[in-house]
Write a structure and sequence with these properties.
alpha+beta; PH-domain like; 2 domains; three-stranded antiparallel beta sheet; 52% helix; elongated
Length: 155
């Protein structure tokens, strides 16, 4: 059995998923980078006890990193219709002339989050499949069952 799904993502869906990912994982990375960058620039001040200056610098860099990260996710947003083919070997997708594919072994476990099926790579990029991509609830349920089985079979 294979599935061909057609749908359009919304900016709001992408934003909600990104915000959830940021809160659970990315903020740590942004905080460490901000602290290190601020220290690199202001190390002389820090070594002389001016920690407030370092903290303000780190906060500024942190806010800049968050803004850039959010901006990139919104700039890379694709509003055209996605055609997603999913089968025992993995998935392939097309949006206009852009194409991509992944094998099940390259993916993190498939999740069902707040009515959205999330097929994420181990690096964090993800396909967000909304309920409206499925003809009915039973098709969605079968899809999840098959995808999870294929992923386990791929090891």
């Amino acid at each position: 059995m294979t599935y061909t799904l057609r749908y359009r993502s919304s900016r709001a869906e992408v934003w909600r998923w990104y915000w959830r990912l940021w809160r659970f994982r990315l903020w740590h990375l942004h905080a460490v980078i901000a602290g290190a960058a601020s220290f690199a620039v202001l190390s002389h001040d820090v070594l002389h006890g001016h920690l407030l200056k370092w903290g303000a610098g780190a906060l500024l860099v942190f806010m800049l990193l968050v803004s850039i990260s959010v901006g990139i996710s919104q700039l890379l947003f694709k509003e055209r219709e996605r055609i997603l083919d999913v089968g025992p070997d993995g998935w392939s997708t097309r949006i206009g002339k852009k194409k991509g594919s992944r094998k099940w072994s390259e993916l993190a476990p498939v999740k069902d989050e707040n009515g959205v099926v999330v097929m994420a790579s181990k690096r964090g990029n993800a396909l967000l499949i909304p309920d409206r991509a499925f003809e009915c609830a039973s098709q969605r349920s079968e899809f999840l069952k098959d995808v999870r089985r294929w992923q386990v079979d791929a090891g």
